[in-house]
Automatic annotation (TrEMBL):
Protein name from the UniProt record: UPF0291 protein Q4T40_04555
Subcellular location(s) per record: Cytoplasm
Keyword entries, A-Z: Cytoplasm
Main location: cytoplasm
Keyword Cytoplasm: yes
Family recorded in the similarity comment: Belongs to the UPF0291 family.
Annotated InterPro entries: DUF896
Length: 69
């Protein structure tokens, strides 16, 4: 789960990386946290797309599509 603390740590490591060299442990932690963040975003997008259900249309659906779906 992405918490404000996780985002703060990602940002902290990114700032440190710009200013100095990260240790091996910090690079590993950064990679793990970035993967966690990216996977979370992917899951949110997938859930949103899974929830988007196309509704069947009829001649009187009223959506203005004129059945051009």
């Amino acid at each position: 789960m992405i918490t404000p603390e996780v985002i703060a740590r990602i940002n902290e490591l990114a700032k440190k990386q710009r200013e100095a060299i990260l240790t091996e442990e910090e690079r590993a932690e950064q990679a793990k946290l970035r993967r966690l963040y990216i996977d979370n975003i992917k899951n949110q997008i997938k859930a949103a797309l899974d929830d988007a259900v196309r509704q069947p249309h009829s001649d009187d659906c009223g959506c203005g599509c004129n059945h051009k779906h």
